[in-house]
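Pilot study result, target chain (95 residues):
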Amino acid sequence: MALSKETVDYVAHLSRIELTPAELEKLSKQLEAVLEHIDRLSSLDVSKIPPTSHILPLQNVLRPDVPAASLPVDKALRNAPDRQGNFFGVPKVIE
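Predicted structure:
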């Protein structure tokens, strides 16, 4: 899959990442290699392979999920730098 430098530069701009021309060149090549590898993987026939969640027979040990009392609002917001009512105040990041 072809990936243009303009596309990478646009995504970097949206992510607020500044890239030098050398970094843009390197990152474009690396991302294109990743996408080519994914294209090769998607061309494989996996219809006869049973679905698995993990290749090793592992079993996770979890505690029972028992409801408990929540942290009181005043205690949770005690060290908040900006409190707005019963919520954390955060700066607006959308332009």
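One observation from the pilot: The helical segments are 5-14, 21-42, 73-76. A full batch analysis is planned for the follow-on phase.
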